[in-house]
Specification:
This protein is mainly α. It has a domain at 27-261 and 351-355 and 411-436: Serine Threonine Protein Phosphatase 5, Tetratricopeptide repeat (Alpha Horseshoe), CATH 1.25.40. It contains 18 helices and 8 strands. The strands form 4 sheets. Strands 1-3 form a two-stranded antiparallel sheet. The protein has a two-stranded antiparallel ribbon with strand order 2-6. Strands 4-5 form a two-stranded antiparallel ribbon. α7 (121-142) packs parallel to α10 (202-215) and α11 (219-232) crosses α14.
């Protein structure tokens, strides 16, 4: 298979695979490309970017709510998780499986380069950047915010392949971030400065640097990375006229890192992100109406009834004939008419991991403490999607204004909870919407609530007893 695929260069053209022994399979750059495709494929698992990780931040961050319990994943919203029940341990196992793949690839590349084989720069850069993304995601799930307590437990830093008996312990949050930045900085010069559909390039790496620095409250470096992307002109913002339709296409002008989803390969169909955000029974009886926008999000978006982003919202099951409640989100169905993004099925819609809109919002937040005029200018590039709202000025801009804009622009893209936690904001849940019972948390929480971090599952502790003493407090 490797021989037959050796001339393929695009993710769209190569069937991802993880088969074979990496110690002998990686002999050439073409072999490494097959492994890169496998890594990208595994990142689209339902336990990672394919659904659950993207659902996590919006369900826990107050932008989504539930109409009824027991439909699936409602434990995220209700915080119903312990070390033994509903631990959500698949985040840990799936992401570490992806890290194993990157470690295998990186070690194989090192062996080939030591033997004099060249041409691996892009593959090494992509693997290092992917590993940085994975660790950034893990430490946000299991560790405290960097700005809260960077000396507290993060996750085990595993950057080499381990034997079956290895039992690595948790590093600190600070050590995790140090490793993340080390991978990103090593990778950046290895990557091309051209658009790379379905893959990580130099600007995808910079976008991750901007995110990481923002979470560290290193505003100078976050702004520097964001502005380099903006000023490169490799990507461009969607206009108000084409923002809604952008979700019907693949690899648009804003797409810095986008994971491909294909009907015959990694389409999650009834388990897809699009299914979980649609109105109940829309398009299929198996659509259960899992999640919908909260009253708080809808109120925020309704600051301007002409906001172009209403174009991906449609009536949910709480709607009546006279009062439609547009709480169903259709970004990952392509459109409210289930257009998909150009493939055979409307569930095989690519996952947009990093868009240029987010980079402008990072630039606005990073500039805010020292240059409010610059912050307002960057914010207004996204705020103009609400034509009725007055532009922000250096006198009117606030951090909450930037945070609200992040919510409106990035709903369904896995951001809100992590934003609220890193900024130590209070999260309020729309529990009365479905009149549901939530015994596992209060209506409002902040990052002092122990369940804002996932537990290390009991199964992991049984396999690695040293983790017992490192369990997150409260579990």
């Amino acid at each position: 298979m490797i021989l037959s695929l050796s001339s393929c260069k695009k993710y769209l053209d190569v069937v991802p695979t993880n088969s074979g022994d990496s110690n002998i399979a990686i002999q050439t750059p073409a072999d490494a490309q097959v492994m890169i495709n496998g890594i990208m494929r595994n990142m689209t698992s339902s336990d990672y970017y394919g659904r659950n990780f993207m659902m996590y931040a919006d369900a826990k961050g107050g932008d989504l709510t539930i109409f009824s319990q027991g439909r699936g994943l409602d434990g995220l919203y209700t915080f119903n998780h312990s070390a033994t029940t509903g631990s959500n341990s698949t985040y840990w196992s799936q992401i570490y499986n992806c890290i194993l793949q990157t470690n295998n690839l990186l070690e194989s590349i090192d062996k080939q380069e030591a033997a004099g084989v060249t041409g691996f720069n892009s593959h090494k850069g992509q693997a290092l950047t992917s590993r940085a993304i994975m660790y950034f995601d893990l430490v946000r799930l299991y560790g405290k915010s960097y700005t809260d307590d960077k000396t507290s437990f993060g996750v085990p830093n595993v950057i080499t392949t381990l034997n079956a008996s290895a039992q690595p312990l948790r590093a600190t949050v600070e050590q995790n971030y140090t490793q993340i930045l080390d991978d990103l900085k090593k990778a950046a010069p290895l990557l091309a400065k051209t658009k790379s559909n379905g893959y990580l390039n130099y600007y995808g790496n910079l976008a991750m640097q901007a995110r990481v620095y923002l979470y560290m409250n290193d505003n100078a470096n976050a702004l520097k990375a964001a502005e380099e992307i903006i000023n490169s002109n490799v990507y461009s913002l969607y206009t108000n006229a084409n923002w809604v339709d952008s979700w019907k296409g693949q690899f648009g002008t804003e797409s810095i890192f986008e994971l491909g989803i294909f009907p015959s390969e990694n389409d999650l169909t009834t388990g897809s992100l699009g299914f979980y955000l649609r109105r109940r029974a829309h398009g299929a009886s198996t659509v259960l109406g899992w999640f919908m926008a909260s009253d708080y999000f809808l109120s925020r978006l309704n600051q301007d009834p002409t906001d172009v982003r209403w174009g991906v919202m449609d009536a949910d099951e709480a709607s009546t004939t006279l009062v439609p409640r547009k709480g169903s989100l259709y970004k990952y169905s392509g459109s409210i008419a289930l257009a998909g993004d150009g493939k055979a099925t409307p569930t095989a819609v690519n996952i947009k991991v990093i868009r240029l809109s987010e980079i402008y919002l990072i630039a606005a937040e990073a500039a805010f403490p020292t240059d409010k005029l610059k912050a307002a200018n960057y914010l207004n590039m996204i705020r103009r999607r609400s034509p009725v709202l007055p532009p922000a000025t250096d006198a009117t801009i606030t951090l909450d204004m930037i945070l609200d804009e992040r919510s409106k622009e990035l709903i369904g893209e896995g951001q809100r909870f992590f934003d609220m936690i890193r900024l130590n904001k209070t999260i309020t849940f729309n529990d009365e919407f479905g009149a549901i019972s939530v015994p596992h948390r209060t209506k409002t929480i902040d990052r002092a609530f122990f369940k804002t971090r996932l537990p290390i599952s009991q199964a992991e502790i049984n396999a690695n007893p040293g983790l017992k003493a490192q369990q997150n407090q409260g579990y």
